[in-house]
Inverse folding.
């Protein structure tokens, strides 16, 4: 599994911006890692990379937030506070695998069986004062996205952000 070393929150935001720039086809991305690992920080960067300039709220209590882009909808889920399968059904997560969506899910382990399968899994880990983000591509689309992302990150040469094998 390849990884990024991300030394601070500014670098995490920059990593997200490059992922947003790499997005094209519809994909499902799972973000795993403990509370405070940097998942929402990355998603905020992704939305900025897509050109969104408004405020990005963490879906901690709403469970799901949506953002409209030309021809695509971006869904940001945080399932940490999900209580039962009925709530997932109410959110309509089973319909999220349509071809016109980008779906980013924090705490996907709480939605097992109901969520669409991931194209890319990102595993966040605390390391010293910073973070590591591991990449696990689970489909051809996910592999393409990961490759495009790594190329953009390298070209951006952001301080405190490095790709590792
Ligand atoms: N690479 C990093 N190094 C150090 N601090 C970071 C890094 N990335 C994010 N942070 C900081 O970690 C804190 C928590 O980040 P964030 O809210 O993104 O975590 P999260 O994984 O979404 O947590 P939760 O599971 O509670 O939703 C924030 O203060 C953020 O600025
Ligand atoms: Mg979060």
């Amino acid at each position: 599994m390849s990884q990024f070393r991300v030394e601070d929150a500014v670098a995490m935001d920059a990593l997200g911006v490059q992922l947003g720039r790499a997005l094209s086809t519809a994909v499902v991305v799972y973000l795993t890692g403990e509370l405070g690992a940097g998942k929402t920080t990355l998603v905020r960067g992704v939305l900025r990379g897509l050109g969104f300039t408004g405020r990005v709220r963490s879906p901690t209590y709403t469970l799901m937030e949506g953002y409209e882009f030309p021809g695509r909808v971006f869904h940001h889920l945080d399932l940490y506070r999900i209580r039962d399968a009925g709530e997932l059904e109410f959110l309509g997560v089973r319909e999220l695998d349509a071809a016109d969506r980008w779906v980013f899910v924090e705490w996907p382990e709480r939605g097992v069986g109901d969520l669409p399968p991931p194209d890319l899994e990102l595993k966040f880990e605390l390391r010293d004062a910073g973070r590591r983000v591991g990449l696990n591509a689970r489909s051809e689309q996910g592999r393409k996205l990961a490759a495009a992302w790594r190329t953009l990150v390298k070209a951006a040469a952001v301080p405190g952000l490095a790709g590792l094998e």
Remarks:
- Strands lie at 2-6, 27-32, 64-69, 72-78, 101-106, 120-127, 130-137, 161-164.
- Helices lie at 9-22, 39-49, 85-91, 140-156.
- The two ends are 7 Å apart (CA to CA).
